[in-house]
Amino acid sequence: MTPEAKVDTNVKRVELIVAPPPKHWVGDGFNVHGFFPHGPLTGERMSPFFLLDYGALTEFPPREEPFGVGPHPHRGFETVTIAYKGKVEHHDSRGNGGIIGEGDVQWMTAGSGLLHKEYHERESNKLGGPFQMVQLWVNLPAKDKMTEPKYQAITNAEMAHVSLPGGGEVEVIAGEFGGAKGPATTFSPVHLLNLKPKAGERIDLTYPSGYTTAILAVEGSARLNGDDVLPHDHLALFEREGESITVEATEDSILLVMSGEPLNEPIAQYGPFLMNTREEILQAMRDFQMGKFGELE
Ligand code: MN
User: Within the chain, which residues score under 50 in pLDDT?
Assistant: First the structure.
């Protein structure tokens, strides 16, 4: 007798395993793999996400002057910065500033716009050391693009922590996992999690059919849906259709899961401005030139 095959017809299948694209520098502080928008991973395909810059683990030398990127504007979306190793410091044209500690997240709503600087935290910069980070751009729905700028500084302790039976855990930054809700508030449905399974541990994820879903292997590696291999520093993009994903860690791992409902709105981008129309982009450029984003040295 053959046991009845358990066929899960509702699997969200892996569409692509993406190798880390060539790195580029953002200022002199962030040497990143620009996973998207890039190639088939267009802004439309990845919506509600737009950009993923991954600063893979790098050893920075000690230096007095902080490594980083100078004043630049943003409008029309949110930047989510996750510090895996090292600390990121920032300040902006509205007088806000702060430090994103190791393991912490900053969820910045650029909204109508501001100027800011991002750099390695001053004291740790002087010592040098390992640095690893992610910056994810989450697009804003058209009706919220000109919302008032704000920050959500989310420490690791403030995230929901869900223990796994095998000794690992899941950190919920936004959305939910296993009934635990993350602290970040979002303008459209978004789930953002760090899976931290131990070797051999299996995690089941479920997202609505139609959601855009990707997993970045920040540490370690995993087997997805039983047979697709996600190597270290690679990104898995799933098909929109289907709901269930199984993740099995092949070693102790950190896997960043991002899943969200596509906005299905027109996208117009120019550099740090992400709007719906060309006219809105031109307006952003005019506003920037006229100093409406404020001033920052
Ligand atoms: Mn920025």
Answer: 1
- The string of DSSP letters for the chain reads -PPPP---TTB--EEEEEPPPPEEEETTTEEEEEEESBTTB-HHHHTTEEEEEEEEEEEEPP-SSPPEEEEEEEBSEEEEEEEEES-EEEEETTS-EEEE-TT-EEEEE-TT-EEEEEEE-HHHHHH-EEEEEEEEEEEPPGGGTTPPPEEEEE-GGGSEEEE-TTS-EEEEEESEETTEEPSB--SS-EEEEEEEPPTT-EEEEE--TT-EEEEEEEES-EEETTTEEE-TT-EEEE-SS--EEEEEESSS-EEEEEEE----S--EEETTEEESSHHHHHHHHHHHHTTTT----
Distance 35 CA to ligand 1 centre (A): 17
Q: Domain 14-262: which CATH class?
A: mainly beta
pTM of the predicted structure, to 2 decimals: 0.96
In this prediction, residue 105 carries a pLDDT of 98
Between the CA of 54 and the centroid of ligand 1 the distance, in Å, is: 14
Ligand 1 midpoint to CA 215 (Å): 23
| CA of 200 relative to ligand 1 center, distance in Å | 37
pLDDT in tens, 117-174: 999 999 999 999 999 999 999 999 999 999 999 999 999 999 999 999 999 999 999 9
Ligand 1 centroid from CA 133, angstroms: 13
